[in-house]
């Protein structure tokens, strides 16, 4: 009954947005760090779960980046980015890059968490499940976000399990639980 009372007070658009946000929060995704450098060489990075493969030929990925993110400004300057899919145990890195940076010093401080190297002119996380360097090939308006298409230049994969995020918590794959194939 209380839920009915609250729902009746919401405007239909607010209700839809709330339900949509909750529904998307139920989806489990691999956690990624998107990283870039600007023309001056300063590093920027952010945690993302809106990442997916787009094409095998040519190898391409899609990354959704909030329009207010400094990382987007940097990747637009150089047209380069890295997509680092996190492995189990890299929760501290995910948390560090989830924080909003107000200054260049705060943005650079994120990179003190984890071991970062430069490959193809962009920061790449050592020990990530998969690290891809990409060249920006296209960008589309997606409301509050930019839909960024990256042409993959290099890939380095590790034999480990991914760090997952769903239902507002980090998740892990249990190796003893395998679904049957049909």
The CATH homologous superfamily is termed Electron Transport, Fmn-binding Protein, Chain A
Low-confidence segments, given as residue ranges, are none
State the end-to-end distance: 43 Å
Radius of gyration: 18 Å
In DSSP terms (H or I, runs of 4 or more residues), the helix count works out at 5
What is the fold named in CATH at topology level? Pnp Oxidase, Chain A
Could you tell me the mean pLDDT? 90
Total number of distinct structural domains: 1
* Category from helices, strands and their pairing: alpha+beta
Question: Approximately what portion of the residues adopt beta-strand conformation?
Answer: 35-45%
Number of strands: 12
Main-sheet strand order equals: 3-2-6-9-10-5-4
Structural features, described:
The chain has 182 residues and is α+β, with helices and mostly antiparallel strands. The protein has one domain: Electron Transport, Fmn-binding Protein, Chain A (Pnp Oxidase, Chain A), CATH 2.30.110. It is 25% helix and 41% strand. It is built from five helices and twelve strands. It has helices spanning 2-9, 12-26, 70-78, 91-98, 104-109, and strands at 29-30, 32-37, 43-48, 51-56, 59-66, 80-85, 116-119, 122-125, 130-142, 145-157, 164-166, 169-171. The strands form three sheets. Strands 3-2-6-9-10-5-4 form a seven-stranded antiparallel β-sheet. Strand 4 (51-56) and strand 5 (59-66) form a beta hairpin. The longest helix is centred in the N-terminal third of the chain and has 15 residues, at 12-26. It is globular. The mean pLDDT is 90.
């Amino acid at each position: 009954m209380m839920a009915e009372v609250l729902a009746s007070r919401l405007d239909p658009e607010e209700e839809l947005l709330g339900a949509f946000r909750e529904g998307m929060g139920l989806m489990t995704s691999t956690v990624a760090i998107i990283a870039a450098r600007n023309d001056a060489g300063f590093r920027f990075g952010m945690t993302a779960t809106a990442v997916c493969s787009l094409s095998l030929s040519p190898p391409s990925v899609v990354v959704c980046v909030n329009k207010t993110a400094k990382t987007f400004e940097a990747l637009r300057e150089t047209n380069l980015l890295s997509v680092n899919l996190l492995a189990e145990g890299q929760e501290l890195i995910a948390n560090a890059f989830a924080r909003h940076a107000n200054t260049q010093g705060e943005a650079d401080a994120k990179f003190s968490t984890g071991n970062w190297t430069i490959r193809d002119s962009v920061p790449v996380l050592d020990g990530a499940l998969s690290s891809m360097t990409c060249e920006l090939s296209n960008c589309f308006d997606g409301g509050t976000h930019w839909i960024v298409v990256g042409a993959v230049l290099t890939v380095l994969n590790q034999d480990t399990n991914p760090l997952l995020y769903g239902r507002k918590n980090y998740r892990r794959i249990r190796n003893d639980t395998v679904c049957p194939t049909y």
